[in-house]
Amino acid sequence: MFAAAERIIRAGPVPVTVDAEARYGMQPHELVDRLLDIGAVGCNLEDSDHRAGGLREAGAHAEWLAAVRSAADDAGVPLVINARVDTFLPTAGIPGPDRVAEAIRRGALYREALAGLEASVRALRTEAG
């Protein structure tokens, strides 16, 4: 995935963020190092747990996002982190009536974890209309 992303980044003069999905099993510093090595300016990180199914526990995921932010800060790079909330995916295991409230709760945790920087919270679809 990183090789393909690097080819895209090197192909043009525009900044590119990488869809790092559920982090590919990497620790925060390793992920940030790989992103910076290929020239990415940011990443999308989802809270889906592809190994266990469902979603990662929100508090643990918020801590992990904070560690990614810290790793980027340690590298001296203002990496853009898009914290994606996956409560609307069928595999999330969140009952329909609870999805909006859970997305808002998770989004607030992730925004706080990212040190007040704008965390883009994307719902795949909305039931709010």
Write structural notes for this entry.
By secondary structure, the protein is of the alpha/beta class. It has a single domain, classed as TIM Barrel (Alpha-Beta Barrel). The protein has four helices and three strands, in the order αβαβαβα. It has a three-stranded parallel sheet. The chain is globular, with a radius of gyration of 15 Å. The C terminus is likely disordered.
Would you summarize the structure shown here?
With 129 residues, the protein is an alpha/beta fold.
Topology:
Blueprint: H1 2-10, E1 17-19, H2 28-38, E2 42-46, H3 58-74, E3 80-84, H4 99-113
Parallel strand pairs: 1-2, 2-3
Helix pairs in contact: 2-3, 3-4
Organism: Actinoplanes auranticolor
Protein name: Phosphoenolpyruvate phosphomutase-like protein
Pfam family, one: PEP_mutase
